[in-house]
Write a structure and sequence with these properties.
By secondary structure, this protein is an alpha/beta fold. 29% of the residues lie in helices and 17% in strands. The protein has a seven-stranded antiparallel beta sheet with strand order 16-17-21-22-20-19-18. Strands 1-2-4-7-10-13 form a six-stranded mixed beta sheet, with no helix packed on it. Strands 3-5-8-11-14-15 form a six-stranded parallel beta sheet, with no helix packed on it. The longest helix has 32 residues, at 229-260. The chain binds adenosine-5'-triphosphate. It comes from Oryza glaberrima.
């Protein structure tokens, strides 16, 4: 059956074609002679004279997998942990009618995942460069499935939602069950299709229908003097009920979220820290997507100051070839000298790729100059939305309830990604505050500047520490944070004062605290409608507003160990999305 008219084995051409990519590979040394089913070909399994399986895990192989998938009777392809590249060809019943197990994880395969095989049982494709969405996956019988650590995005739908989040984690932008829901702040900022976020925001500020305020919102109550004792009692009762409910939820989620994050353990096997980085001369290290950056063009670029913070100044730079980036020039005072730990951290931060995290494209550390090159996000920051420019105080654009929720949910996803990124020790953001939550061209909230403040020197800020208030007075705490500027208003109480010291001792728990402060500020902000005050709290309805406030209060628990993890915060927020 295996013989063709000219005497050659039918499966020989695809196998030899694959071998041609790897002429010197030790694993394929035994692939000689005209009969791959002679029993001498290592890694080749035959049945009735035809190749039905290829097993070449950990064999240092390069080239594409397409030739192997051209084997007409192939049932199993296991080529994990090689350096295979190129696209996975579209697979369906006409190309691979017998394929049951496809194991291609830990390679460098790219392109979309287009697999429509009703009988496929195993698809493990984690740790590759697959991109696009999962719509072209039709694998109803699959029992073992993993596409984590790729560059996939879009919604997880249908049958695939039955797999755990570990099957999908670490992608550029996958969302939907079992991951958090897909939310676009873009939609929230403006309902009309095709409308730009800024146009949408303008429309809202000029009295758009979504800019209305809840008559029963917490801030509205506060603003009107809280004259109504009965309403207050009801609010407190709802608060207590929500609090108890959230605590209970929290306990039940604890186990689930632990399981959900277990995929990180796999990462121990492979350290990609040094991968995807090139030095483009002059000490500029470029990360994925920043390959075109050159230090000379950065230094020559026309620049516009975006703002100045504790850690340095940020510029919008337009490079010669028209590329626009944001360049953060770190303060020499806060970041003196060379630090190996900081360099290491930057290389790690350069690997963070998530739709709700601002991508670091390059990093330069030479002659006492430290430049961080980020994607430029054109729609400002949460700080500017809430309070106008970089500084505190009034003048912010209107922000309806849906936009507030979308921004918070997006930022929480970004922070959760950072917290669950496989790194030892685990990553900490250390500077969660509204000016580090930026809006991209679609209006999606992205967290910026992961971990930078952990390496700042112990330089005290001139901004006074706002007073801390008893836990019950969450609105005062949020207001204090809003007015305080810097990071102080958002820093957890257990951290030492002073930006550098506080950043250095920051933990994931203190990040959660800071996020909680941001959440409380956003939920109770007073700039819905006309941008000049006039009540706040959005149009979420009293129950929902109180629900968000309770999440904020859980996050800002005085004791770090009582705070939820970001995965739990996300799950709680998901109930209101
Ligand atoms: N990638 C970016 N794209 C667009 N704007 C940005 C980007 N990064 C920062 N900005 C904006 O530049 C301004 C200055 O940011 P910068 O990070 O220097 O200061 P900060 O966040 O106020 O304080 P800190 O030094 O504590 O981070 C902020 O308004 C911020 O929103």
């Amino acid at each position: 059956e295996a013989e063709v008219a000219n005497g050659g084995h039918q499966d020989l051409p695809p196998l030899l074609s694959f071998k041609s990519y790897n002429p010197a590979a030790a694993a394929l040394e035994s692939w000689v002679g005209g009969d791959p089913c002679s029993g001498a070909w290592i890694g080749v399994r035959c049945s009735r004279g035809r190749v039905v399986g290829v097993f070449l895990d950990n064999a240092s192989l390069v080239g594409g997998v397409a030739p192997l998938l051209g084997l007409a009777r192939l049932g199993v392809l296991a080529v994990r942990r090689n350096s295979l590249s190129g696209r996975l060809p579209p697979l369906d019943n006409s190309t691979s009618p017998r394929l049951r197990h496809l194991l291609v994880s830990h390679n460098q395969l790219t392109g979309g995942l287009r697999v429509s095989l009703p009988s496929l049982v195993t698809l493990t494709a984690e740790h590759n460069g697959f991109h696009g969405d999962l719509r072209a996956l039709s694998i109803p019988m699959v029992r073992s499935f993993n596409v984590s650590r790729n560059m996939l995005d879009g919604e997880i739908s249908g049958d695939l939602s039955r797999f755990p989040s570990s099957s999908f984690g670490g992608n550029l932008g996958l969302c939907g069950l079992p991951l958090p829901r897909c939310v676009h702040a873009y939609n929230a900022l403006g309902d009309s299709v095709g409308q730009s976020p800024s146009a949408a925001m303008e429309e809202a500020s000029s009295g758009g229908s979504n800019g209305g305020l809840s008559k029963l919102s917490v801030t509205a109550l506060m603003a009107t003097g809280i004259g109504n004792a009965a309403l207050m009692v009801i609010s407190v009762a709802i608060s207590v009920a929500m609090f108890v409910y959230m605590r209970r939820k929290l306990r039940s989620w604890k186990g689930a979220s632990d399981a959900a994050l277990s995929f990180e353990e796999e990462d121990k096997v492979r350290n990609r820290e040094e991968k995807g980085q090139k030095s483009n001369g002059g000490g500029l290290v470029c990360f994925d997507g920043g390959e075109e950056l050159r230090l000379e063009s950065l230094l020559k670029a026309s620049a516009e100051v975006l703002g100045k913070g504790v850690s340095g100044s940020t510029y919008k730079a337009v490079l010669e070839d028209g590329i626009v980036v944001a360049v953060k020039r770190l303060s020499a005072l806060q970041f003196p000298g060379r630090s190996k730990a900081f360099d290491r951290h930057m290389r790690l931060a350069g690997r963070l790729r998530h739709r709700h995290v601002v991508s670091l494209r390059g990093y330069c550390n030479s002659n006492g100059e430290r430049l961080l090159v980020y994607d430029y996000l054109p729609n400002g920051s949460l700080q500017s939305l809430l309070h106008g420019s970089n500084g505190g105080g009034g003048g912010g654009r209107s922000l309806d309830w849906a936009a507030r929720k979308a921004i918070l949910f997006g930022a929480a996803q970004g922070l959760n990604y950072i917290h669950t990124f496989p790194a030892r020790p685990a990553l900490v953001h250390a500077n969660v505050k509204p000016s580090n939550i930026l809006l991209d061209e679609h209006g999606a909230a992205c967290v910026s500047e992961c971990g930078v403040m952990r390496y700042a020197a112990n330089i005290q800020q001139s901004i006074p520490q706002p007073p801390r208030c008893p836990p019950g007075l969450f609105l005062d705490r949020a207001a204090a944070a809003a007015g305080g500027g810097g990071w102080h208003g958002y820093a957890a109480p257990e951290l030492a004062s002073g930006a550098g010291a506080a950043g250095a001792s920051a933990t994931q728990e203190s990040d959660v605290y800071s996020f909680g402060m941001v959440l409380l500020e956003v939920v109770t902000a007073d700039n819905a409608g006309d941008g000049n005050g006039g009540g706040g709290g959005g149009d979420g309805g009293e129950d929902e507003t109180m629900g968000w406030v309770k999440i904020g209060m859980l996050c800002t628990a005085e004791a770090p160990e009582e705070r939820p993890r970001m995965a739990q915060v996300l799950a709680m927020m998901g109930e209101f999305m």
